[in-house]
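Page 42, continued from yesterday. The earlier attempt failed because a stray header line got pasted into the input along with the sequence. Redoing it now with the clean sequence only.
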Amino acid sequence: MLQTINPFLVTGLLFFMSLVAGSLSEKIKVPALILFLGIGMLAGVDGPGGLAFSDANAANNVGTFALAFILFSGGFQTKWSDVKPIVTQGVVLSTIGVLLTAVFMAIPIAMLPQFTYKDAFLLGAIVSSTDAAAVFSILRTQKVGLQGSLRPLLEFESGSNDPMAVFLTITAITWLRTPDVPVAELAVNFVVQMLAGGVMGYLMGRFSCWAIQRMRVSNEALYPVWGISIVMATFGLTETVYGNGYLAVYVCGIVMGGGEFLYKYSLQRFHEGFAWLMQIIMFLVLGLLVTPTEVANMSVIGIGMLISCCLMFVARPVAVFIGSMFSRFNWREKLFISWTGLRGAVPIILATYPLTEGHPQAKYMFNVIFFVVLSSVMLQGKTLAWFAQFLKIDAPVREAKTWALNFDITPASGTDETQEVDLPDDAAVIGRKVMDLRFPDGVTILLINRGDKYLIPKGGTVLERDDTLLLFGDRAKLYDVERRLTMPAENNA
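This time it went through. C-alpha cells are written below.
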C-alpha cells in the first residue's frame, strides 16, 4: 500500500511511471492522458496503491492551476501567422459552438428520469468544450498531418473554448442555487468576463515582452521564474477584475509567442515541459479522485454511453455545422472538426464544481462525466489519424529535427536567428557546392541534416536531395536565402 511509504518516494514513483507511460503512448497508440488517469486510479483507493483521496476542493484547485499553464503553453507555441486567417471562425466555434453543444446535450439529458432540466443544462455545460490538453497532446503524439488551416483552427478552438464552458458551468450552478437570477445579469457577466479576459491577456502579453526585454535578470537561469510569474499574475489579476483568467493566459501566450524578447525559445521549451508536468499532476489527481468501482456501475455506464453517443454523433456535429455555416471549410473538413471534439481533463475539473457545492447528484454526475471522457478519448483520440486519411484531408507530417546546436535570443544576438530549410527534389541548388551559393554577408549554413547524419558544411560540400539546412543570420536576410534555396531549377536565374 502506497500510503505506508514515504510520500516523496510515492510522488517520485508516480512521476516516473507517468514518464514511462508517456513514452509508451506513441508506441501503443493510446493517448497519454488515459495512461496518466489509469496510473492515478491504480494508485487510488480501489487500486493496489490504496491511496484515499476525496478532496474535491483540492482537485479543483490543482486542476485550475494546471490548466492555466497548459493553456498558456498552448498559446505560446501557437504562431499568430497560422491563427490569423481562422481567428473569426475559431471564436465562433469556441463561443456559439460551445453554447449550442451545451443546449443540444441538455435536451436529451432532460428526458432522463435521473435529471431535472436544470441538471441537464449543467451536465451539457460541463461536457460542452473540447479539451486543449487532449487535442494538443494527441495531434502531436499521433503526428496527425492536416491540410490547410485545419490544425491551427482545432488548436485555437480547443485552447479558447474552455472559458465559455467554465462560464456556462458556473451559470448553471448559479441557476440551481438562485433560480430567480435575471438572465440579463448573466449575459452582462459573460460579456464582462470575456472582454476583460481578452484585454487583460493582450496587455499582460505586451507588458511581459517589454519587461523581459528591458529588465535584464543577472542570472539567465532565472528566466523560467519570469515565465511562471507571468502566468500566475495574468490569471490572478484578470480574476481580480472579474475577467476570465483562462482566456487571459491563452491570449497572453499567443501575444508572447508572436513577440521578440530575450531567451524566448528557452522560455518556450521550459513552458512546454512545465505544461507536461502540469498535465501529469492534473490527471494523476483526477485519477485518484475517481472511484473505479462506482464508474463501473451499470447505471453510470448506460447513461454515460447514451451521453457519449449524443455528444459525439449529434450535439457536437450539429453545433459545428451551424457554427461553420458561412466558413470556407468543406463538408469533409467540418466533419473532421466535429470528430476532434475530444473531452479530457476540463470536463472532469468542471465536474468537481457541483461536488464543492454539495449538489445532491454531484457524485453521480462526476462518475458519468468521467466515463464520457474515457469513451471520448479512447474512441475519438485513437481514430483521429485514420479518420483524417478516410476523409482525404491528411497531409504529410514534417518531422522536427533534433539539432546538436541551440541558439536563442540573447543580449548579444541582436536580430540574428536560426532557420531550417528543406530542399525540395527540384531545387536548383541540388548538386551545387556550398562555396558557389553566394549567400549575403552574415548568413551561413551551420549544419546539414542528411538522413540520420549531421554534416558540418565546408566549401566543397555538395547539396543533395532531401537535405535540411540549418541557417544562421539576420532574420531580414533569411527569407530571401530560403527563397533562393528552394527555387526550382527552371526558375533559377
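Notes: The chain has two domains: 2-390, 416-491.
Reminder to self: strip header lines before submitting.
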